[in-house]
Amino acid sequence: MSIPKNKMLLTFLGTGTSIGVPVITCDCKVCTSTDKRDKRYRTSAMLEIDNEVFVFDSGPDFRSQMLREKVMNLSAILYTHEHRDHIAGLDDVRAFNYVLNKRIDLYGTAKTMEMIQTEFPYIFTEQRYFGAPQVNIHEIDEQPFTVNGFTFTPIKALHGQIQVTGFRIADLTYITDASFIEAKELEKAKGSKVIVLNALRNSKHSSHFSVSEAVEILTSLNPERAFLTHMSHFIGTHAELEKKLPPFIRPAYDGLKIEIDYP
After folding, report:
1. What is the three-state SS of 63-120?
2. N or C: which end of the chain has fewer CB within 10 A?
3. Among candidates 9, 16, 1, which has minimal Cα distance to 252?
C-alpha cells in the first residue's frame, strides 16, 4: 500500500493478549469464531512514514506478522516494556540484517534494555555467535527522542507494578498494557487525532485497563478516532464489542490499516 505524502500509515500487526486469540484448548464462541477479526496475534503495531518503518514491540508472532504484511524494511523497534509477549520475537530481526545489510536500532527504557540483554545473552556477548541478530541499543527516558528525523514523545504508564512506555508521534498516541496513567502523562496525549489504548476484558483487571476504563480515558482525551488493542477472548467477539462502543472508538483487529495526517 503506497502512503500519500504528509500521511503516516499505522498497521495493527497484532491486537491480542499474551496468549493470543484463539486460546489453545479453548472452545468459547470467540475462540471458535469464523470472523477473521477475532483471530488475534500478540499485540504489536507498525508505523510507516516516508521510507521509514517503525515497529512497536517484537512479540512471539513477529516473524508471522512481518511475512503477512510483506515488510521489506525496518528502521527501528520501539519497546513498550520487557514482558515476553512484547520481546520474544527479537531473534527474527536477523533476516533484516541479512537483506538490508545493517544493524537494527532498538529503543526502550534502561530496564527494558537490561531485560532484553538478559533474555537474549547470545546477541550481546563479546564473541558474538555467528548468525545472531545485530542490533544497537538506545536507552530512553521521559524526554522526546528522534529516530531518523522523526520525534517520539514517551508517555509513562503503569502495568500493574511495572512501568510501560507509550509513544506519541505527531497526531498519533500508542499505549498498550497500561492499568494507570498519571494526569501529567495523559496530558502528553491530548490533541492527538488518533489514540490506541489497551482494553483487556470487560471486567476489572490488576494490570490492564478494562473496556469501560479505556472508554472513560479516551472520552476525556476526545480524539477524532480511537482504537482498542491487547484484547483477550473474555472481551466477546469483535462484532459484539463494536456495537457497545461510542462511535469514535473501534476495536482494532489484526491487519487493520489507519492513515493519519503527518504535518
Report:
1. HHHHHHCCCCCCCEEECCCCCHHHHCCHHHHHHHHHHHCCCEEEEECHHHHHHHHHHC
2. C
3. 16
Give the closest residue to 109 by CA, choosing from 151, 141, 77: 141
Compute the half-sphere exposure of residue 89: CA atoms within 13 Å on the CB side of its CA.
25
Residues ≥6 apart with Cβ < 8 Å to 187:
none
Q: Structurally, how many domains does the chain consist of?
A: 1
Strand 76-78 and strand 104-108: the pairing is parallel
Among 216, 192, 189, residue whose Cα is nearest residue 204: 216
Residue among 207, 209, 188 at smallest CA distance from 199: 209
Q: Do the domain assignments include residue 243?
A: yes
CATH number of the domain within which 122 lies: 3.60.15.10
Q: Are 7 and 259 in contact (CB under 8 A)?
A: yes
pLDDT digit string (tens) for the chain, length 263 residues: 678 788 999 999 999 999 999 999 999 999 999 999 999 999 999 999 999 999 999 999 999 999 999 999 999 999 999 999 999 999 999 999 999 999 999 999 999 999 999 999 999 988 777 789 999 999 999 999 999 999 999 999 999 999 999 999 999 999 999 999 999 999 999 999 999 999 999 999 999 999 999 999 999 999 999 999 999 999 999 999 999 999 999 999 999 999 999 98
Quote the CA–CA distance of 263 and 152 in Å, as a whole number.
Answer: 14
Is 1 part of a structural domain of the chain? no
HSE (side-chain half, CA atoms, 13 Å) at 180: 8
Give a yes or no: residue 227 inside a domain. yes
Nearest to 174 by CA among 235, 138, 225: 225
How is residue 55 written as a grid cell? 515497529
